[in-house]
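<purpose> Linking amino acid order to shape
<body> The protein record starts here
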Amino acid sequence: MPKVPAWQDVVQALIHLVFPSGCASCQTPLWQTSIPFFCQSCWGKLSLLPEPYCPQCGRPFASPVALTHSPTHACGACREHPPAFSKAWSVFAYQTPLKEALALFKYRGKVTLAHPLARLLIQHLPSLPPVDVIMPVPLHAQRLREREFNQSALLANPLSQHLGLPLILGGLIRTRPTVPQTSLTRKERLTNLRGAFSVSQPVAIQGKAILVIDDVMTTGTTLHECAHTLRQAGSGPVYGLTLARMV
């Protein structure tokens, strides 16, 4: 028996029929798709982060045999500057079409992408250690007013429901506006976020293992600063999970 399409799919198909648009990746006309702004062919080309990668920060190693004889071998960056977080995972490489999807989501306000992006995170969820609460990386109040949403919070909410864990919003605060990390050199990234976060209610995180959610990891500086702030305020171990990582 053929599957009856959901009413949302029918409505979306009608919209595409009356107002056809092109896939944000390949520009192919979209007549019917379950993923906003992308054709099924392009969406199926998402690239998982290639193994092997650093067991602490998740940075992919250049050599395919890097961990063969030493599974706990950390990358040079983690050895030289040990991060404040205990471990971080990233699911996908920051490449087409995910790169375009995140740009539409974050910078053009296409929040309809929040659900399919969060679904990707849940579908490819790594094996996590015991965690007490989930927290999104915060935006500064000025940036939040401009954007009107926090993309990390929109990813974290479905994940907290899936895992059955409390989602703490506003517990971690960005105290000053900062330049986007993607626009900076590695050296600039290391200082851009220093001292940019604070904890609003330290008693709420005392001794708790925290999973911090963000959309993209570049050098890991954002997660490091969040974890450093949380640990200084008395939290337990801090872990990080991002949808994508620059490679």
